[in-house]
Write a structure and sequence with these properties.
Elements lengths: L3 H11 L3 H14 L1 H14 L7 E5 L5 H9 L4 E6 L2 H13 L5 E5 L11 E7 L8 H11 E12 L27 H10 L4 E7 L2 H20 L3 H24 L8 E7 L1
Parallel strand pairs: 1-2, 1-4, 2-3, 4-5
Antiparallel strand pairs: 5-7, 6-7
Helix pairs in contact: 3-4, 3-9, 8-9
């Protein structure tokens, strides 16, 4: 099951006005557990971030995290890069329309990314599982960071990320990935091989998060993939599911997991 077409359909619906685009970002922040974990880490980084920090969103997609970052600290200068040119143009138009002049978007292939000592923070959310040459990208991240800069990475783990261990292939999104997920030690070893001096990693999507993801994201995406009629039912579905999902997401964020289907990894230059 590929969900890029579903994401594009949802994006087109919510992209008709800047207000709806902001609503879309808010819904993603609520529904996507990874966003809860990433925002938690960004709030912590904000406490020690330098004035006028330079930030790279490596794989910016819809621009969700760029909107959050520019809201968290307007003095930051943020660049989002992606390989999908239509999303780059779309994001540039939206951020210009709302007056966020400190955010810009450009095309970039992370395997060829070549900027030296430019960024205080590099954010990479659900990107590395799509790139085969991961160590090369980590080396490019290391080069692009200023001394003391940090890379923040959210990615599936090898404990069943994207439901890779499900028996029904239609229920898995792994076909869009080049690897099942990272072993928690493996990704830290690769980052150190790329030159990073210190790393930290923790699991996300423990039992509460896995349950939340299934009811709030997986099942709706699967149903939308089968019939567009589910767009009509979706608001009523979330009236019941959303409160439960939020409780489970909050529990996941506030729990130290011994295992989980996702990883949050930090690495310092």
């Amino acid at each position: 099951m590929q969900y890029d077409p579903i994401k594009r359909s949802l994006g087109s619906v919510f992209n008709s006005t800047p207000f709806l685009r902001k609503v879309f970002y808010k819904l993603l922040d609520i529904l996507l557990l990874r966003s809860w974990h990433v925002r938690k880490e960004l709030k912590e980084w904000n406490k020690v971030s330098p004035a006028g920090a330079m930030i790279l969103d490596a794989g910016s997609g819809f621009g969700q995290y760029d909107f959050y970052l520019s809201s968290l600290n307007p003095s930051w200068k943020i660049k989002g890069v992606d390989v999908k040119e239509e999303q780059i143009a779309d994001c540039n138009a939206f951020f210009k329309s709302i007056g966020r002049e400190n955010v810009k978007f450009e095309f970039a292939d992370l395997t060829r990314f070549n900027e030296a000592s430019t960024y205080d923070l590099i954010l990479s959310v659900d990107v590395m599982e799509h790139i085969l040459e991961d160590v090369l990208v980590f080396e490019n991240f290391h080069k692009a960071l200023k001394p003391g800069g940090m890379a923040l990475i959210s990615t599936p783990s090898d404990q069943g990320g994207s439901d890779v261990h499900d028996h029904d292939e239609e229920d898995s999104f792994i076909e869009e990935h080049v690897r099942d997920g990272y072993n928690i030690q493996e990704i830290q070893d690769k980052l150190k091989k790329a030159g990073f001096s210190r790393t930290e990693a923790r699991y996300q999507y423990g039992k509460p998060g896995q349950r939340a993801w299934r009811i709030s994201m997986k099942y709706p995406i699967l149903m939308l993939g089968r019939s567009k009629l589910f767009f009509i039912i979706l608001p009523f579905y979330y009236l019941f599911v959303l409160p439960v999902s939020m409780i489970l997401n909050r529990k996941d964020v506030n729990t130290q997991h011994l295992s989980g289907t996702g990883l949050v990894v930090k690495a310092w230059k």
